[in-house]
Structures are given as C-alpha cells and as structure tokens.
Amino acid sequence: MPERGAVPQVPTVGLRALRLARSFTSPLLPDDYLELINPLWTTRELRGRVERLERETADAVTVLIKPGWQWPGHRAGQYLRLGLEVDGVHHWRAYSLTSDPGRPDGCIAITPKLVESGKVSPFLCRRLRAGTIVRLGGVEGTFVLPDPAPDRLLFISAGSGITPVMSMLRSLAANSALTDVVHVHCSRTSDAVIFGTELRALAARHRGYLLRERHTGSEGRIGPDQLELLCPDWRAREAFLCGPPGLLRAMSARWRLDGDVGRLHVEHFQPDEHVGEGERGEGGTIRFCASGVEAASDGGQPILAAGERAGAALPFGCRMGICHSCVGRLRSGRVRDLRTGRVHGQRGELLRTCINAPEGAVEIDL
Amino acid sequence: MSTTLAADPAAQDAAAGSPLARLDPEQLEQLGREFEAVHDEVFADLGERDSRYIRSTIALHRRLVLAARALLLGSRKKPLWLAGTAALSVAKILENMEIGHNVMHGQWDWMNDPDINSQTWDWDTASPADAWRHSHNYEHHTFTNIRGKDRDLGYEIMRIDPHQRWHPVYLFQPLYNLLLMGFFEWGVALHDLNSDAILSGEKSKAAVMKELKAIGVKARRQIVKDYIAFPLLSRRAFKSTLAANFTANIIRNVWAHSIIFCGHFPDQTYTFSEEEVAGETRGGWYVRQLLGAANIDGGPLFHLLSGNLGFQIEHHLYPDMPSSRYAEIAPRVRDICRRYGLPYNVGPLHKQLGAVHRTILRLAFPGGKPRPKPGAYSPPAP
User: Cβ of A90 and B112 within 8 Å?
Assistant: First the structure.
C-alpha cells in the first residue's frame, strides 16, 4: 500500500468535530471535502506548502516548506521523508533537514542536490515551484547532536553530506554553542560548496568555528592519513561524519584502529552492502509466507537481501531503512535491527526488511 | 438460419463456429502479443495528464455533492428539489462508475497515491469495497462469461443464456429484474456474499458472518447519511430531502444496472463452456474477453457517466488501464479485430438495452436458442 504522510498534531476539539461530520460524508471523510478548500487542512496526513526556493549552487537548491499543521519538531541532523508527485507518479525520498529546529517562522528546509539520473532531484532542482503541495512523512535518524552538545566537536563532510551538518551548525550557532568546532568539508571546487557563503560567514563571526575547506578538484581527496594534519586532536573530539561510502569506510576504519568508535557518528547516504554499525547476531532462517520461499541470513545480511538471493520477489525501496517501502508483517520470531543492534519483534509488527536480520527462525507475511 | 439448427445449444455453437475455435495457436499467440503491445505502450505513456484527469474528476464529484446537498436543504421548493436530486444522482453515478469502479480495479494504482488506490478506496454504494473487489475483479474478470464459473452471468438469479437449464422460478425473472434494477446496489452487496458457496459449504460460517457484518456496517452508514443525517439537517424539509435522496439512489441504481447489463448480456456476446477454455493461453484469454463483452456507442459525456464501460470490450481486455484511455485505444482494438476476423460488438444504448431485456423476457420461458452472432468486424464505410 502506498506510503502516507505523518499523522499531524491536530487539536482534539477539531478531531471530535470531524468525527461527528463523518455521518454526512461516509464513505468519504470530512477531510476529503476540506481538501477542496485547502489541501493542507486534511488531518489524515501532514502536508506542506513550498514557500520559497533558494538556489545554493549550480546543482543544489534549498526548498523551504511550511507544514500545514504545527511542525512536530526534529533534532538537528535528522532526515525527513518527503512525498511528491513527479509526472503523475507519487515518489517518496529522504532528505536531511537543513533548517535549524527552532526556526521562528515554523518553516522547515531541505537542500537536495541534483542527481542527473534520478527522478525526484531533477524535479526538485529544476521544475519545482513555490505553492506546490508536498507530503511530509516521519522524521528519523540517529545522526544527531547529543544533548547537551559536547564541548569539542569535529565535523567531516563531503559534497551533499554537508546537509545534516548544516542543521547542526545552525542549531549550535543559534544556541551560542559554536565554541570549539573543527569542520573539514570537501567539495570539488569552491563554488560547488553548498552553503559556502553561510559557512564562511559563520567562520568569520565565530572564533570557535574553524572551517577547513578542501577542494578536491585541485587538491585531491582526503584520507585518514591527513587526519592528524587537518585536526591533530581528533581523538579528543565527538566526531560526525557524512559523505560518500568510500570516505565513510576509510575514516571509520581509522577510528576503529586508534580512536574511540563510541565518539564517532556516521550518516550513510547511500545504501551500503552492510547496513549500519550495530552489533551482529547469529542470523537465522526466514520463511516468506506469501511466496513460500525459504532463505537464510548469516546475521549481517538483512531479510530483504537474503530473500532476494533465495529468489523471492520482494518489495524494496531505499535499502537503508528510510522509505518503508519494503515493510512486511512479522508472523513469528525475533529480528535484529542492523543499525542499532537492538533485538526486537512482536507478532504482527510491520518490519522494514532492508535493515532487520533474523535472530533465529522468523516467518514474514511477504 | 435458425431453422436448420438442432435444438441442442452445444451443437448450435459448433454450427455457428465460435471465432475462438477458428484461430490456430500461432495466430492466437501473435494476437496476444499485439494486445500486450497496446497495453505496454499506454502504460509507458501514463503521466501527469492522466493524474490531472482523475484528480479533477474526483474534485468534480465532491463539488457536485456539496452543491446537491446544499440545494436539498431547501428541498421543500420544487425547483430546488429537482435541481438537488439531479445533481445528487449525477454525483453518485460519477462516483460509482467513473471513479469507484475504476479506482477499485487498480487503474490508478500506478500513481502510487495513498488516497487514490484500490486498497484504500471505498465507494458510495451498499457493497463493502473488499467483498466487491473479490467477486468482481477476481471472479468476474478472470472467469468472464464461462458458464458455471462467472457468477455475474445472470447474477445467479436469472437465465440470460439459453445454455442455462430452465426452471419455473425464471418465469418471474422479468419481475425481479425490475426490482433488481431499482435496488441494484443491494443486489450487488448480496451477490458478493456468493450464496452458492455458502450453500455448498465452500465458504465457512465465520467468513460469511464477517462479510455480513461488513455489509451491515456499510449499510448502516449509507442509510444514516441519506435517510437520517441529511434529512435532519434539512429540518422542516425532512421528508422531501429523504425523498430526494431515495430518488437519487434509485436513479443511480437503474443507470448502473442498465450500463452493466449491456456489458455482457446483449445476445451477440458469446459464452463459453469450461471445456472450451481448458488450457487457455494468454491469446485465448484476450479473445474470450473480446467475444464476451459488448460496447455502447455514445459521446464523451455518456462515456464519463458510464465510467467508460461503454468501452466494455477495452475494459475487459485491460481492466487495469485507466478508463480515460479506452477511447484512445479503441481504434487499435477494432483494427486487430478486423485483421483477425473477430467481431467487435457495438451498438447504441437503446439497441443494446433492448437486446438485454428481450433476452430476459424470452428466456423466462423454456427453450430459446443462441441468437445469431455478428461476423468479423468491418469498419463502417467512410
């Protein structure tokens, strides 16, 4: 079944009135008629209106969205599932929220970067207009600043990996907590730095924010061996890492080698062979009840990947736990969330098959 | 031709030469590929134009409902009663035919929209969405016009095919057909229950109870809305609003009954025995769908209000294709019919409806023979 937006926070008085009005609208909902006046008024799901578009670079644009109902809030660094129609078809994508959670105008912002071969980002970067109505899904993600913010911080970002970091920087600046932050950011050229002007202004204004730009077009890529040079006290800092998989793998290896992995936070933007950094279990067998296919996982392989290898045709989406396209109902057994290592699972629960591995024998209604 | 035919309907079929038996396996396969190609081409082209069409049709329905209900608040005045009843009838027809039936077929599922989706849609009629989807989408569209398997063939209560054995109860069928016409939505709701399966024990008691409960819930909501809530809202016009809502439901029922009966029951359509379709190929399936359906001629407004079921043939070939595309592909379907020497059954509403009612009257009595079938489609002279 297609994905819907998040349930909005509506005053109970309003909900009661709508429930009463249902006798007049059944089998439709009063919301179906409210929508005729203003599509943001539906209480079935949270929607938003595109207020403004701000071009950041040649291939990145910031989309400011005003939610129809009060924004439930997010933590700096989290991402939002956004649903919108492109050429008649509804698509869902996840984008890091780039806005400071405490924005006074109640707006939220995402900053998509153009992926030429994609379906949604070319639309967002080229064809989206103010006034468009979008669906707002849940806010998710564990790539967030601890509360209270650590004293000493290190951000390493590359390309569009700046987006969750930007939200954190804005939030830190707004709370006067930009006191001891080193930020290494890689981008092809100086012009290609998303939020370049704002980052440089932040660096000029806050003595505690040290911005080290690295332009890979002329200076080459960075690797773990340059860490000492870029930030000699990296071991003493709470580190946040966001960028392409190669960079994440190389840097994470360095932290595992002689740093404190507990203080390293990583955001995966692209699906990786192995999902997440959580603890691994022993794995187990999976029975897909609808197709009758049986599969097995070694504990590192998610249910989706194991099923596909065994020949099951399964619904899939982002393969990183964001989009919920792959959900199936758990009939029996327990599973382990590969991102966090947490073992969970109750009969009848809807599971994301792309990020959960079996913990013993499981049966799933797919 | 009928004088030379034997009284046995099966022998008559052989003499008439079902076009299905005339095509060899190779031709059938080629024809199947041609029909698939039309489907694939349309699906590759679906986009914003189609999305806009269904969204604006849905918005039109909702505006019509609001206008109708507002007019009927003053239903004690004759002109308001008439205008309100007319608007409500059209709204209900539009919602059932062009929106509900087609959305629940999954014709708009490609949009991936959570609201306009076959799994979440419910329509303004007595039958609950789930039960209808099973009896219609699965049973009727899979076993179309197979005698003994397609329960929509005569709806289990009528003899509309001379192959069906006569029984004295059919003497009353012209009468109960009239009743069914007026209360079609309730007939459909009960039909979905599948009384045969219940009597044969095929369907468990628990399943029947569950479905009955669903019908009860749906019926209560429909009755509360049309016969209690809105009449009460009209205050002193309680009775006239109630009468208006009742009339609108009857008008919608008669219209739906007429359009749907014209889809398969005009006597030029073919029915099939289970032996005829044993081991059916994809191409054979297409031919059966083609032979078992009949189209109705009409203008764009007629097609909108009939949910594009005037293109019953195209609908049966491609039940998952957005209805707004049927008119566009009809010339290509006709061209395939011409080239393979297949009939393409089409006629104006009065002719198709006349044929349906003639059959219902004639077959109320014993006997009856399959009517002469039309030959291969040939395009009208320019």
Answer: yes
